[in-house]
Amino acid sequence: MKNRLLLAGVAALALALAGCSAPAGKPTPINEPRTVMQKAMSECQLISVSTGLKLGDENHTLILDGKGEEDAAGMSFDSELCVLKALKVTDAVLNEIETTRALDGRQEASWGKIDASWTYHPDNGLDITLTEK
């Protein structure tokens, strides 16, 4: 009787452990991105301490501070564009962003599950706030 109970316990433990393991040949990354903002940062090889980049609101908001003529410490336009494309920005919104003038003030748009607002000034660059709905 004790042997049957012991065998049943070992079998139950083996089944429980099998349910907790990763599929064979595919290890689970320790720091796997969890939100679309983190995934975009990962795709563009940006880290949270990158110049001109701030991740907030429990990783659901990404603030991009672009490099300008007088603000050389910001992100390059290419890095900002990479993030937008990783977030699957539409052509229409991308055109609105690219044609924004300093006189236009703060602009807003949405696509998919992303809300965006931005300003542009040659001195300060393109500054974008992206929020996952």
Give a structural overview.
With 133 residues, this protein is of the alpha+beta class. The protein has a single domain, classed as Beta-Lactamase. The protein contains four helices and five strands. α2 packs across α3. The protein is globular, with a radius of gyration of 23 Å. The N terminus is likely disordered.
Order of the strands making up the biggest sheet: 1-2-5-4-3
The pLDDT mean sits at 83
Structural class: alpha+beta
What helical percentage do the residues reach?
A: 25-40%
Strand content: 15-25%
Reported by name, the CATH topology is Beta-Lactamase
In short:
This protein has 133 residues and is an alpha+beta fold. 34% of the residues lie in helices and 23% in strands. Helix 2 crosses helix 3 (77-86).
What key attributes describe this structure?
133 residues, 4 helices, Beta-Lactamase, five-stranded antiparallel β-sheet
Helices, strands, pairings?
Layout: H1 2-20, H2 36-43, E1 53-56, E2 61-65, H3 77-86, H4 91-98, E3 107-111, E4 114-121, E5 125-132
Antiparallel strand pairs: 1-2, 2-5, 3-4, 4-5
Helix pairs in contact: 2-3
Protein name: Lipoprotein
Organism: Leifsonia virtsii
Signal peptide: 1-24
